[in-house]
Specification:
This is Reverse transcriptase domain-containing protein. By secondary structure, the protein is mainly alpha-helical. It has eight helices and two strands. Strands 1-2 form a two-stranded antiparallel ribbon.
């Protein structure tokens, strides 16, 4: 890169076509090397994320680096309610709390009906095969945001085999102390 920059400086100053040609060659070479490095980096991360023996902490660091999940450094904007402006996070939280608690007031004294008819159909157990999951992963749009589980669609798209599909729920279970993680959450995150 330094050599490319030196040749570029020289070409600009001399305006010599030989120097410009040399600069173009070096520029294209640098671009190719950067692309190769990025691809190798992605392959390395994919290999690490599919490793069964990776500790959960390292697994989540890799996931966050791939999905670009990070805490926002920007302060939240002010809120205005009934002519007052709220700047402090505690005041904002109280405002939201009062707003949503007023919306969801439930009539506790209402009586429940005694004779509720059975539903017209009974939902059977949903069976999802590994092939169906892999088909959905092939059609996954990587530009969509992460689902409620926080797993990036890009990570899911990189997964090619069913064996690696079993790794994600086990890491989620270890991280959040969940006893049973369903493939249903995995399918719904980021798809549609």
């Amino acid at each position: 890169m330094r050599q490319r920059n030196r040749i570029h400086y020289k070409a600009k100053n001399t305006n010599n076509c030989i120097h410009w040609q040399k600069f173009r060659e070096l520029r294209n070479e640098v671009i190719d090397l950067v692309r190769q490095s990025k691809e190798q980096y992605k392959q390395k991360l994919t290999k690490e994320i599919t490793d069964k023996n990776i500790p959960p902490g390292k697994w989540w660091r890799i996931v966050k680096s791939i999905s670009k999940l990070s805490k926002s450094r920007e302060p939240t904007p002010f809120l205005k309610s009934e002519g007052q402006i709220f700047l402090h996070p505690v005041n904002k939280a109280e405002l939201f709390n009062s707003h949503f608690s007023n919306i969801s007031k439930i009539d506790i004294d209402a009586e429940l009906p005694n004779n509720v008819p059975d539903p017209p159909f009974k939902m059977e157990e949903i069976i999802i095969t590994e092939e169906e999951v892999l088909d959905q992963l092939k059609n996954l749009n990587c530009n969509k945001p992460s689902g409620p589980d926080g797993v990036s669609p890009r990570i899911l798209k990189e997964i090619k085999s069913g064996e690696t599909l079993r790794i994600i729920p086990s890491h989620c279970a270890e991280q959040f102390h969940i006893i049973k993680v369903s493939y249903h959450l995995l399918l719904n995150s980021g798809m549609s």
